[in-house]
Design goal:
14 helices; six-stranded parallel beta sheet; seven-stranded mixed beta sheet; globular; binds zinc ion; single chain; 26% strand
Length: 349
């Protein structure tokens, strides 16, 4: 195919998004070129300190597209296949991979699609193409395919949380990741799912998606409100969405005896949390991090989508073309009515 320039959306700083032209990548013998059809904006991609650490960069790690060109040594997929491509893929051979700790694999950390999902085309390197690229069944639409990565992160989080079936689960923060936690915690048989957020509209959506109760975190002390809702027990599983020390402290205060608190988002590098080992020990409360996801979780996520446990309609609220990517990032960062914001691409003419 001819190497025309393509459009990309590059982030220079928080809410500084520029549409630029750059050469369309050329796949090597064991690589693929994908025409992007949709790409989600991740909650992490609108965090100023995180953007500044990486900018300038074409963001977008939740892409779906159609394979348009393959290296000559690739035979396991075909041109024309619609795929979800994981931005990071593990080597499957190192010590971390053998233990299932894929995000600690040096290859996972180093791998990335080029230039990123917020581009008309992206290159899928060998590691990602062979390690974590999934063909989408016809029943999984483009917008749903863009949810594979976020759902996979939630699959990992709920797996690390321990036994969800029969548990009381508190989900702090009801942005898209909180809403997905509500859906999957209910699906996995949680006894009581309670969502908490400062924004009424998000609480209302969590109720629609199956939360048994919601707590308006603006109405007063969250731990006290939770105690009222749980006969003083607290929650056996607490998912802490917001990436703040405050939220982690509240999460720990909300945990039941023998409970697990999942730190779902990365805090800034210099943040410090004060812990009471006495309290953790005698109440046997676990604090468990859950960072991103690997190929086991992406496959589980695709199955949930194929089974319609999660649909795009549940969480996708805003869509923008690439030319309006600046507005898309602004909405994802600041519009309280936004749950999931996607950038969508016109089909090839
Ligand atoms: Zn993400
Ligand atoms: Zn590895």
């Amino acid at each position: 195919m001819s190497r025309e320039a393509m459009k990309v959306a590059r982030l220079y700083d928080y809410l500084d998004v520029r549409i630029e032209d750059e050469p369309t990548p050329r796949p090597g013998p064991r690589e693929a070129l994908v025409r992007t059809r949709a790409c989600g904006i991740c909650s992490g991609d609108v965090v100023p300190w995180y953007i500044r650490k990486k900018a300038p960069l074409v963001f977008g790690h939740e892409p779906v597209g159609e394979i348009v060109e393959l290296g000559r040594a690739v035979t396991h997929v075909a041109v024309g296949t619609r795929v979800f491509v994981h931005h990071h893929a593990p080597c499957l051979a190192c010590r971390a991979c053998r233990r299932g700790e894929f995000v600690q694999c040096p290859t996972w950390r180093a791998s990335r699609i080029v230039p990123g999902g917020m581009a008309e085309y992206f290159l899928v390197p060998e590691t990602n193409l062979f390690g974590d690229t999934l063909a989408l069944p016809e029943t999984v639409g483009d917008e749903e395919g863009a949810l594979v990565e976020p759902i996979a992160c939630v699959v990992k989080s709920l797996t690390r949380a321990g036994q969800v079936a029969g548990a009381s689960v508190l989900i702090i923060g009801l942005g898209v990741m909180g809403q997905l936690h509500v859906l999957l915690a209910k699906h996995r048989g949680a006894r009581l799912v309670i969502g908490a957020d400062l924004i009424a509209g998000r609480c209302a959506r969590a109720r629609q998606l199956g939360a048994d109760r919601v707590i308006d975190a603006a109405a007063g002390d969250l731990a006290a409100q939770l105690a009222d809702a749980t006969d003083g027990d607290g929650a056996e599983i607490v998912i802490v969405g917001p990436a703040t020390i405050d939220a982690l402290e509240i999460g720990l205060a909300c945990a039941a005896k023998g409970g697990t608190v999942v730190q779902f988002m990365g805090t800034p590098p210099d943040a410090r949390l004060q812990l009471s080992p006495y309290d953790l020990y005698f109440r046997e409360v676990r604090l468990v991090p859950s960072y991103s996801c690997g190929p086991i979780e992406t496959r589980a996520a695709l199955q949930y989508l194929a089974a319609r446990v999660v649909t795009a309609r549940d969480v996708v609220t805003h869509r923008f073309p690439l030319a309006a990517a600046g507005e898309a990032y602004r909405v994802a960062a600041e519009d309280k009515s936004a749950i999931k914001t996607l950038v969508t691409f016109a089909p090839a003419s």
